[in-house]
Amino acid sequence: MSRDINNKFWDEELETLPREELEKRQLEDLKEIVKFAYENAPYYKRSFDEAGVKPEDIKTLKDIQKFPFINKKTQRDTQGVGSFLGELAAVPEDDVVFISTSSGSTGVPTMSPFTKKDFDEFQDTESRWFWQIGMRPNDRYVHALNFSLYVGGPDVIGAQNLGALCIWGGTLPSERLLFVLKTYKPTVIWTSPSYAWQLGEKALKSGIDPKKDLNIKKIIVAGELGGSIDATRKAIEDIWGAEVYDFYGLSDIFGACAAMCEAKDGLHIAENHILVETIDIHTGEILEPGEVGELVFTTLRKHARPLIRFRTGDIGRIDNTKCSCGRTHGRIHILGRKDDMFIVSAVNVFPSDIEAVIREQDGITGEYLIRIFERDFTNKYAVEIEKNSDNPKTDEEVAAEVSAALKARIGVKPARVVVHPDGGLDTRSEHKSKRVIDERNLEYVI
Fold first, then answer.
1. Which residues, in sequence order, are bridge partners of residue 246?
2. 307 with 297: CB under 8 angstroms?
3. Last residue of some domain: 295, 317, 338?
């Protein structure tokens, strides 16, 4: 099928469906997938029966609220039980053509299986996101993501299906990746936001000006929140002279489930594949669209392992209004991970709030580390930063400026700001950067 390269839509009919029609299709798929899960996945049969609900109870989209939640613990507890794929799987192993696994950063790694149809639809969605940010068949694309069991690895196939020339970079050392960028002159790259920024820094320090010596026009970032933080996105764009677009994915579902468009006002989520709810993180109460809470996803078309009301652990909101780009699929705005949020003086603090402040400050490198600790049975936080080598201000002056900026933006100032010289923080990574260290002892002995 040939496409008009001047048409900004990959699938215009799907992407611009009136909200009523989109929700009608969602309801049809929801009825089918809940019935399929109940009849084929042992866990859902048992769970639904215990909750006193049946697939026939789905009459409207809101009826999904009658069904029980699942989460990462559910996946871990059922994985390998009864079969290799476990009790959440709804197809036999012979129907599965691909599995990825989670990183295991919050527990035992969990598998995500795909049937051939699941996988093909996954890659068509990736093609849609690539097209949405402006990739076309005449682009050269470097996929600088981990291929080792990571669900984002196969996303390169979506770029190939679009017709782009694809370079399967993987997690190359910085020097090798810069060689690729300089030699092959690719126009698009996908990596993490922290690494995109650090790679640009390394290029400059090695005598390569990304704006003049390289040919990158678009940078896709994912895996961390930076791409949706205006200050971080601008910092990357300033180094590269390229447009930065944020993608969002879950190993539990597929590579990129949501992506920015040219409006850069949230990330369009593939609502033909995912039904989104937002709930209060403490009570589980359903929140209205636009309210901030934990995002809950139900997969509408993935048959290998359906996820019915999966609590993602991500804090954010969804905006279902039509975007200025013309797309009607909702846009999610991610604020952070529930696990990463901490409370100081009754204020909810996300690492992304701190990053936004740090990246806006002059005279510091933009690298940072957050330490959360306790004092007198109260949460406190400290921030460590790096001062530019040409910054004439004293460490005390820099610390005071950063502390004041954090107080103004977040509402609570850090207990301390520690200033290191350029390169003094061990936070630079060619993958995801470790930014938060939790030093709290949550078990009190009184």
1. 221
2. yes
3. 338
* pLDDT tens digits for range 388-433: 989 999 999 999 999 999 998 888 889 999 999 988 887 776 556 6
Report which of 161, 166, 226, 168 is spatially closest to residue 200, judged by C-alpha positions: 226
174, burial (CB in 10 Å: exposed 0-12, middle 13-18, buried 19+): middle
Q: Is residue 72 exposed (0-12), middle (13-18) or buried (19+ Cβ within 10 Å)?
A: middle
The radius of gyration of the chain from alpha carbons, rounded to an integer in Å, stands at 23
**pLDDT digit string, tens, across residues 3-53:** 899 999 999 999 999 999 999 999 999 999 999 999 999 999 999 999 999
The CA-atom distances, in angstroms, between 252 and each of 232, 305, 371, 396 are 27, 9, 29, 45
Q: What is the dihedral of CA 120, 122, 124, 129, to 10 degrees?
A: -160
* Phi, psi at 174, each rounded to 5°: -55, -45
* DSSP conformation class of 232: H
Give 274's strand partners.
299
Which tokens is 2 given? 């040939």
206-226 pLDDT, tens digit each:
999 999 999 999 999 998 778
Question: Which residues pair with residue 293 across a beta bridge?
Answer: 316
DSSP SS3 for 438: strand
**Residue 258 is part of a domain; what is its CATH number?**
3.40.50.12780
We report the CATH number of the domain holding residue 431 as 3.30.300.30
Closest CA to 259 of 323, 307, 342, 340: 323
Q: In what order do the strands lie in the sheet with 243-248?
A: 165-167, 140-143, 188-191, 218-221, 243-248, 258-259, 267-269, 331-337, 310-319, 293-299, 274-279
- 357: enclosing H helix or E strand: helix 351-360
Q: Among 44, 26, 65, which Cα is nearest to 330's?
A: 26
Distance CA 281, CA 311 (A): 10
For residues 370 and 436, the answer to whether their CB atoms sit within 8 Å is: yes
Burial of 396-426, coded b for 16+ CB within 10 Å and e otherwise, reads eebbebbbebbeeebebbbeebbbbeeeebe
Note whether 381 and 372 are within 8 A (CB).
Answer: yes
Instruction: Indicate whether this model's pTM tops 0.85.
Output: no
Low-confidence spans in the chain with pLDDT less than 70 = 1, 103-108, 346, 376-377, 429-433, 442-446
Domain co-membership, 259 together with 156: yes
